[in-house]
Write a structure and sequence with these properties.
The protein is mostly beta strands. The chain is 5% helix and 34% strand. Strands 3, 4, 5, 6, 7, 8, 9, 10, 11, 12, 13 and 14 form a 12-stranded mixed β-sheet that branches. The chain has a two-stranded antiparallel sheet with strand order 1-2.
């Protein structure tokens, strides 16, 4: 069952999604008991960024963005395939881009609806106005730029009817993988409870990747319902699923929908030298 939400406008210009009673899952612990991460990505504020969302990330503004490469497998010992994240902010939009190394992309030719994205390789971003995930907002984007956006409330109560007004996404193939590019209106973020993004503002955000591969073992495998596929079944053998995160959620099993999986986005006018050093590594 999917929880129902109501979006309310507040006179101060902010908004909140209020969950009506609905079925989620029993929470592993109280929302306030999680240890929160201070890991931070600095978003460069570029008033004239002029990002065109086409998946190619070839605008000059992207060369001025910090490059985040600290993605890993929290639930596996081996190194994760490389992932890069970039973001810039102008006076209208938050623009973001992922580059994913993936020589075995799992993608559906046709989606029954946008929720079928959960059966594919994809990148994900979660935005949380509060540390307890009372309400949070998600977008998951596949290797063809198709987006599934929805609202959530702790623990795992989802409303797929909600969407980011004005969200733009695109993707493009690259040798050995794919890039995803997107743009979210600042007014959309303000409507769900965030302040206007400008230098000095910090918000909670999670960065993730579903890293799937084809099962070519030939063994008969019956698709099973899991918390990740939400009851949806793929055609043919289900993919082999691995999960990549920017922040280690410190959970025993893969789970991004907990407060400890989120880091911070800090809007800055200029990047400190430490970012340049990290990018050179």
């Amino acid at each position: 069952m999917i929880a129902r939400f109501l979006l309310l406008a507040i006179a101060a210009g902010q908004g909140a999604a209020v969950a009506e009673p609905g079925d989620g899952l029993p929470p592993p612990k109280d929302a306030g008991a999680w240890t929160l991460s201070d890991q931070t990505y600095r978003v460069r504020h570029l008033p004239a960024a002029a990002i065109r969302v086409d998946g190619r990330t070839d605008e000059p503004a992207w060369s001025e963005a910090a490059v985040e490469r600290r993605f890993h497998f929290p639930w596996r010992k081996e190194a994760a395939p490389p992932t890069e994240f970039r973001a810039v902010c102008d006076d209208q939009c938050l623009a973001f881009a992922f580059q994913a190394h993936d020589p075995d992309i799992v993608v559906l030719d046709t989606l029954g609806d946008e929720q079928d994205v959960v059966l594919e390789d994809r990148v994900e971003m979660f935005f949380a106005p509060d540390d307890r995930l009372r309400n949070y907002f998600c977008v998951e984007i596949d290797s063809r730029g198709r987006a599934y956006d929805y609202a959530g409330s702790y623990y795992r109560r989802f409303d797929p009817r909600w969407s980011f007004p004005g969200l733009q996404t695109a993707a493009a193939p690259i040798p050995g993988g794919y890039t995803v590019e997107g743009r979210i209106l600042l007014t959309s973020l303000e409507q769900i409870g965030f302040p206007r993004l400008r230098p000095g503002v910090t918000i909670r955000c999670g960065l993730y990747r579903a890293e799937f591969s084809h099962d070519r073992s030939g063994r008969p495998v019956e698709p099973k319902e899991t918390i990740h596929n939400r009851g949806r079944k793929s055609v043919g053998p289900p993919p082999i699923e691995h999960w990549i995160s920017w922040v280690d959620p410190q959970t025993p099993e893969p789970d991004f929908h907990v407060p400890s999986s989120l880091g911070r986005l800090e809007i800055v006018a200029d990047l400190p030298l430490e970012n340049e050093a990290r990018e050179a590594q």
